[in-house]
Fold this sequence. Notes:
- This protein has one domain: Metallo-beta-lactamase, Chain A (4-Layer Sandwich).
- It contains seven helices and 19 strands.
- The chain has helices at about 20-30, 50-60, 135-145, 160-165, 165-175, 270-280, 300-310; strands at about 1-5, 35, 35-40, 70-75, 95, 105-110, 115-120, 125-130, 150-155, 180, 210-215, 220, 225-230, 240-245, 250-255, 255-260, 260, 290-295, 300.
- The strands form five sheets. Strands 5-6-7-8-9-10-11 form a seven-stranded mixed beta sheet.
- The radius of gyration is 18 Å and the shape is globular.
Amino acid sequence: MIRVVCKLCAETAFFAHPVVILAKYAEKSGLFVQNGSKSPIPDPGLSSTLSQILLLRITMFGFRGSFCLIVAIRICKRPDANPYILPSSCLCEESSFVRQPDLQLITILSHPFEQNTYIAKLQGRTDCVVVDPGLEPENILRHLERQGLTPAAILNTHGHSDHIAGNPAMKKRWPSCPVVIGVGDVPKLTDPWLNLSANFGVPMVCPAADVTVNDGDTYEAAGFEWQVRTIPGHTVGHVVFLWEGQEPAVVFVGDVIFAGSIGRTDFPDGDHRQLILGIRSKLFTLPDATILLPGHGEATTVGEEKRSNPFVGLGTR
């Protein structure tokens, strides 16, 4: 696989789907905000939405653009063969790619930002958790209803709009399903400027948090016991959810780390130093076989990122 590494964005470029107009999904979900209230009708000022979305996609994924500095092109072997991670593709809209006896894990791709929504359940149960429902919630709801699953919790790793945009549709369908998010990112749920959607002409808001978690907490849902680790840097309140119920352990890492890259730290509450320290102290201390499930791109492992990640690997400063 050829990867374009962007030092400014610190995310990996995935040359996959063409840009899909984000406004379509926000309008469909009734997420536009106009004069401080929800409105299904786009503001007239959104005439430049497409160009703004193009810019957002460029800066999110390291495509060549005015705000993107390409510093290196390298061919990466990603990751080494792992018996627990099945071959998968960024182009799959819905796929199962982790092989464990009791864990059933589905990823649903939200095209506008190639964002991964995860649905995790244990064998023999009909409840599940949904991690970071994205901009195409209809696909998430369709899968849950087709499989006869009831979500026991919505886990948000952080409050950026591409990871929370599906919350309203989930809460509308299952009002009692709690939204769980790190305490530091709670304001992003209800503030379009903090969750970055307003910056690009498609402001959206979500239901307030039902449960807030902090570093060291545990949260139980759908038979899972999730260990919460706060890793700021991409956002101030970013958390990861670790499950050690089977070997190898599984971590939903959001936008903290990717296969061969790390999350952006140029947002208002970003901090590059904190991100690097958090990855090394709270992820790289886990066993090498631990599976990392990022918010964008393919699954990887702790061992693979320690060995070869150009931003935070053990051979880097």
